[in-house]
Amino acid sequence: MKKVILFIILITFFMSLQLQGFAVERDKKNNILDQPLQVAIIIDDFGGDVKGVNEFFASKIPITVAIMPFLTNSSEQAQKAHELGLEVMLHLPLEPKKGKKSWLGPNPITSDLSEEEIRKRLTTAIESIPHVAGINNHMGSKIVEDEKIMRVILEVVKEYDLYVIDSGTSGKSVIPKLAENMNIPWSTRDIFLDDTHSSNSHVYKQMLKLAKVANKRGKAIGIGHVGIKGHETVKGVQSALSHFKELGIQIVPASHLLETKIEQNPERFWQSD
Length: 273
Hints:
By secondary structure, the protein is of the alpha/beta class. The protein is built from 9 helices and 9 strands. It has a single domain, classed as TIM Barrel. It starts with a helix and ends in a 9-residue tail after the last helix.
């Protein structure tokens, strides 16, 4: 009789543990479902007189504007973006493994520079763009793999209280690891919306892929460009807006979708290190 009672107690105990586990999983799912789906659309290569700039400004799409430094219209376009209520980023030119140096624009960060010169160029670039909230990389497949150089860059980023988005030009990027260790808000690009030959139909398809990522994970970051095909990118993004609305996806500034230690461990927010 005692064995039977003990058996019943054990069964009841293990069933209660299972139910608690189901409850936790249910709560997690409910929390995800309760949160609105959010997407950030970063548009790179602002700063020059190129196709797509005026169209995006007139579109009323809440993009995040990533501006190349030291170009003719860099400061002016940053100011205009801010006046339109758009978030502004520095689109920082970094040396790639392949490509023409002319693609980087003026005063890029290259591997032959001293730490002092890197700091100087980055500081000047940040201060040249009004209302800058964060940075992402222009090209940079070589630099983003270099921990020594990226640490110098991120030290300056932290000094200015900015966030960083890894544009995803290299699968070996050290940006996420360093940013996490340095307690700098960060995230990475999920989908490229276009390339130099994209049609608006291609951009539309990429926007649908972005929506799928957001639907699965709750959030996603897409990167497009102004430039040679900038007008096609605007059209492609616009054509997908009705689909986003049907799915309940909000377009938000990039700063709303960042990874931070506080976000990952909210219960430890008030605990001292």
